[in-house]
Predict the 3D structure of the following.
Amino acid sequence: MILVWLIITPFAGGVLAWTLSKGRGFLGRLASRWISLTALAIDLMLVVRLWITYYSGLGTGEFSLPGISLPYGKWFQEFSAPWIPQAGISIHLAMDGLSLLLVSLTVVLGIVAAAASWSEIKDRPGFFYFNLLWTLSGIMGVFLALDLFLFYFFWEMMLVPMYFLIAIWGHEKRLYASVKFFIFTQLSGLFMLLSILGLFFIHGGQTGIYTFDYLNLLGTTLTPAAAFWLMLGFFVAFAVKLPAVPVHSWLPDAHTEAPTAGSVILAGLLLKTGAYGLLRFAVPLFPGASMSFAPFAMALGVVSILYGAFLAFGQTDLKRLVADTSISHMGFVLLGIYAWNGIALQGTVMQMLCHGISTGMLFVLAGAIQERIHTRDMRRMGRFWENVPVMGGVGMLFALASLGLPGLGNFIGEFLVLMGAFRASPVLAAIASLGLVVSTVYALWMVQQVFHGEPREKWTLPDLNLREKGIAAAMIVLIVWLGLYPQPVINAARPALENLQKVRAAVLRQIQAEIGTGNANGPR
Amino acid sequence: MGPADLFAALPLILAAASSVAVMLVIAFYRNHGLAAFVTLAGLAVSFASIIVAAPYAPRKVTGLLVIDGYALFFMGLIFAGTFAVAMLAHGYLEKKLLAEREEFYILLLLAATGAAVLAASAHFASFFLGLETLSVSLYALVSYTGSEKAVEAGVKYLVLAAVSSAFLLFGMALVYAQLGTMEFSGIAGMALGAYMGDPVFLGALALIAAGVGFKLAVAPFHMWTPDVYEGAPAPVSAFVATVSKGAVFALFLRYFAMVDIHQSRSLVLAVAVISIGSMFIGNLLALLQNNVKRILAYSSIAHLGYLLVAFLAAGALRVTASAYYLVSYFITMIGAFGVVTVLAGKGGGEMEDIEDYRGLAAGRPVIAAVFSAMLFSLAGIPLTAGFIGKFYVMAAGAGSSLWTLLIALAVNSAIGLYYYVRVIVIMYSGREAEAVAGGGGGETALAAGAPEAAVPFGGGLALAGLTLALVWFGVYPPALLYIIQKMIHSLM
């Protein structure tokens, strides 16, 4: 039931924030902010409680944290209720270590996003916070849903409020950016729905049980062709969200034009739903097809790493630069998932969390600068450090995190991914590591442009205020902690990742058996 | 014809009787409110009588009608849809016309009766009678306000509908010439065999398809739709888009549930082409429109294309998906046109131009929210009935492996999203534009917030009910699904 509350709290908070802020005065504006912060604080408490349960359970060995496994053991938290029984649809939520990590990230970045828009949003704050909270609620649902229909439901549900966030409170080209974002994600989502339905009917036809339940659908016997096409439907949806290179073009626009909170949530959370989808659904549901697809997906990941980095290198728009780095960083995630070994997968999870925190914070800073000087053009900035030393220091730290400085979280993620990828494909790993070099250049160049160098225009801007310092402090603590002591994350994600490896081992065994018997066309 | 027959046909009888009742009321005491009240009461009683009729179903009433769960379900849908249209129409007529508003309801009830006959028809004769009752009432309804545009739309509709009826009649005649029967069940029994390859029979089917295609406004028989929807009064557009189409589709589905369409590859191919054509033509042309009523018209063409995907599916899902989709389509389309209806001010025009909607959310947040919900439902976004409807259509298609059609549907949903969202964006943006327009051509912007265009009570109530249904069927569909499955098993 606690899982339901996780989703309902921001949902209800959003409705409250909207309805109670009808008074256009000062009070209405204040109410929506405090209500959303309260809702997120409640969610944070729920997450803390979940971590406590998790650790106490771990000690006693009460639950085995099975994650994705066949046969399935007990989930760490589970909730199930019928929804549309006629179509085999239920409200099935479950949590393992991986979901717990991502849900925690959602709550933390949600609070950051709410706090970052505290003074930025002056137009219809009630509706703004409503959209913000509903997006978070949808993301939370994506991380928890185990029924494929429910998953798709949340997948679509988070888009509409996100779309409004960009379209109403965004910057100059907001309409173009928001519609592009919406259409890209919708279309790819519909392909996923087709795949879900294909799987539903194939499974139903074989077993007579028509259900959307993930646990039932796992291990459906598919012909290689069917598995490939169904896998592709999922992959397209997740690759668009991730984003991987040929379908990435919505991201720079959306991230640049979105308000600060929107950028934080897009970069920090929405992109992670794509990675989570690959880890939870695309790979385990279609292990054989994923395995044959892996080289291609890894190549896409490497291309994303380099292409994103090169795009970033040429940017003069501060937010666009950070957005392009996201493409690069998420390329590591794609590479790690399809390298598909223990180290790479651990790196992937680390990279997801650290990218969420570091990029989220960079967007907060970019938003803070824009709020002060009303431009994102780096050609008009320069030598801000003298003026705003605290902001400069924080910016420097997160730029270093972004380029993968040891001691900060991102280093662990990228290093592990590269290490794992080297085992899978030394060539690709070698090319991917070039991305680290380029990232050093763009990150330092960004800091140089904004905080050092010659002042090109005369700005007098106030330094970070207490609220912003608070956000920065929390984020610094997290990124340093993840950099120095990542073990809790690795432990929590391990069961889910181990199961992925088991799935891989099973596929390999089957392939070997087929080669052994000379039956290359058998079912996978 | 015994009492059981009368009980079974009670919904039809009551619907017909209420039009007579309204006529009598007008003859003795002409009052708009009273006429509207009698209409609504008549529709409510007809709707309630479905429960009385249900125990007698399935039952053949004379050779012409069959009252089964399927027919009763669609009658209920038709009466409920007409009920909402009547509520919307009251406030609209109050604003638009000074006198002679009352006859509107007679025509509306007649049209609803015709539509209900279609849902229950089992014979070409009742098919044609129902269709003509519906169409002839609609000619008058379309041009009811008497404005130049409305009359033009009415004439256009009259000419084209008459031609399509002629096609239909000729097709029926050919079928009769070949098979010697006009009963659907008889045709179905014989058509399964040798006749499927018979050129005359196929020609007859094509003629019937053209007639039906016109009523459904699917490509390539869609040309009249945008003009008529634009010219007709908004509540009548809602009626044409939903009740009229829904009744014809119900009949079409019943007919082809008996004749297994998958026996003939050419027939399946033809319907598939019509479906894909409607989707693309509807959505692509909607992109070019700046008139909200025309956008909705093209959208309705595309939606019938989606519905035909479900029609081509096999098995029980076909009817479930069609029925669910139609319910959600009824709610959404009546709701969308309903918003246009309640926003219409006094005088000739309606709020049609998309620019009239700029900044609507600032002045009238509730109406803007309702319209957004309707548009999101048309786009198939979660938490609305349209989402579940689209899901069911896709499920039906996937169950029958109609992948080409489904990919076309997915691509079209993305295209459609663009113009739905465009309207929403315009409603939620443009405060600046409003301020700018305040100097010069601010008349349209003012109309959005003008106090004289207050939402009429009946229309507001109808919209509230429709929105509630939209969300209810979008979040918790099992109840409706239960009813659908209970009602339609008679068709299987």
